[in-house]
Write a structure and sequence with these properties.
Layout lengths: L40 E2 L2 H10 L7 E5 L5 H7 L4 E6 L2 H11 L8 E5 L13 E4 L3 H12 L5 E6 L3 H5 L3 E9 L4 E2 L6 E8 L14 H7 L5 H6 L2 H17 L8 E3 L5 H4 L2 H10 L21 E3 L2 E5 H16 L12 H15 L16
This protein binds S-adenosylmethionine.
EC number: 2.1.1.-
Pfam families: RrnaAD
GO molecular function: RNA binding; rRNA (adenine-N6,N6-)-dimethyltransferase activity
Length: about 375
């Protein structure tokens, strides 16, 4: 990947690392941005230009732009592509981007679709997708796009996502964009990445909606033993899946309560596992693992006066999880260091032991996955 040019001190031309201009666009100052919609406007025209240049568009390309906002990327794309279809959820932004090209020849080549891109079924036909994607929809958007047979998607997304997406796509880092280039500035810097869907035999024949990776990357620097065995929520969800698996496959289940004598959770949990238990408390960002519905009434791990009571199924499930981690020899590995083949092995082992894959189906409009 070629290195982007840096602008020299005092040079007023718009290079990619030019300091953001305060009066870059009147449109950027007209209304209050909505945090819930991830409205962080790219205010540096040099960066907008660099992103679009890196997409190496053909003059014949139809570009899908997700969340055009006030149109800072849109106008650059229109300079290089045949047509832009921009899907925008905020009517104020849709009006703003439309206004930006009004009375200009590009007007005819811009189609603004008002609505939630995740709910657009089907998506309009396009060659390339370019998006300064709000964090809230980056996962569902990427996986929605990866279901399509399109050749190339260019997306700006948080870089952690690329770890999940790399199962189904080749991901390359294009550009780092510091938070100061956005208005209002987000809490973290961003990365522009190119996502090219894998095709044919390169593409693994597994569902990408199951939540295994999300468990692993909930705490990417923790060992898997801690993430799976030290996290009651995870165990509970694996158990829910296992129960569903048994029910749908006519496997009898022994639900008797047992004292966990000889299996004192706190004694058994090591430092990593304890950390994970503490991490989980009050964490409302828990993934919907394996696509299973969370049902608090279904909990089988109960704590009374410090002593734990479990059902036999809960104990069995914990043993199964332990077996998976031991057999794959991944118990002491950290997600951040694993290769994608390791995740596939882990997935296969879980599938064989607790039947998660059959139960990994999810609703198409579920935004919370991965
Ligand atoms: C980070 S801003 C990017 C704006 C512009 N592209 C830029 O780079 O300056 C994200 C935009 O996506 C829009 N948006 C948020 N959620 C959306 C959704 N589900 N579907 C379509 N647009 C959405 C927001 O209203 C906002 O305009």
């Amino acid at each position: 990947m070629g290195k982007a040019k840096t602008s020299k001190r005092g040079n007023t031309s718009s290079g990619p690392y030019e300091r953001p201009s305060k009066n870059n666009s009147a449109a950027n100052n007209v209304f209050k941005f909505t945090k819930d919609l991830g409205q962080h406007i790219l205010r540096n025209p040099g960066i907008a230009q660099a992103i679009v240049e890196k997409a190496v568009l053909k003059p014949t390309d139809v570009v899908l732009e997700v969340g055009p906002g006030t149109g800072n990327l849109t106008v650059q794309i229109l300079n290089r592509a045949r047509k832009v279809i921009a899907v925008e959820m905020d009517p104020r932004m849709a009006a703003e981007v439309t206004k930006r090209v009004q009375g200009k020849p590009e007007h005819k080549r811009l189609e603004v679709v008002l609505g939630d891109v995740i709910k657009q079924e089907p998506l309009p036909d396009f060659d390339v997708c370019i998006s300064n994607t709000p964090y809230q929809i980056s996962s569902p958007l990427v996986f929605k796009l990866l279901r399509l047979p399109t050749e190339l998607h260019d997306l700006e997304i948080p870089s952690t996502l690329s770890v999940n997406a790399q199962f189904w796509a080749k991901i390359s880092h294009v550009l780092k964009v510091g938070r100061a280039n956005f208005r209002p500035p987000p809490q973290v810097d961003s990365s522009v990445v190119r996502i090219e869907p894998k095709t044919g035999s390169e593409r693994p024949n597994i569902s990408f909606e199951e939540g295994l990776l999300r468990i692993c990357f909930n705490r990417r620097n923790k060992v898997l033993r801690s993430l799976f065995l030290g996290n009651k929520e995870v165990l509970k969800m694996v158990e829910t899946n296992y129960r569903l698996y048994c029910a749908t496959n006519d496997i009898p289940i022994d639900d008797g309560l047992v004292d966990d004598a000889g299996e004192d959770e706190e004694m058994e949990v090591d430092e990593d596992e304890k950390d994970a238990v503490m991490d989980v408390d009050g964490d409302d960002d828990l993934p919907s693992f394996f696509g299973a519905a969370k049902n608090p009434d279904e909990g089988t791990l109960t704590s009374k006066r410090g002593s734990l009571k479990k059902t036999r199924v809960a104990v069995l499930v914990k043993e199964k999880v332990r077996k998976v981690l031991e057999e794959t020899e991944l118990a002491e590995s950290r997600s951040a260091k694993l290769h994608e083949n390791d995740f596939l092995r882990l997935l296969a082992a879980f599938n064989a032991e607790v039947g998660v894959m059959e139960l990994g189906e999810t609703k198409p409009d579920d935004n919370t996955l991965l």
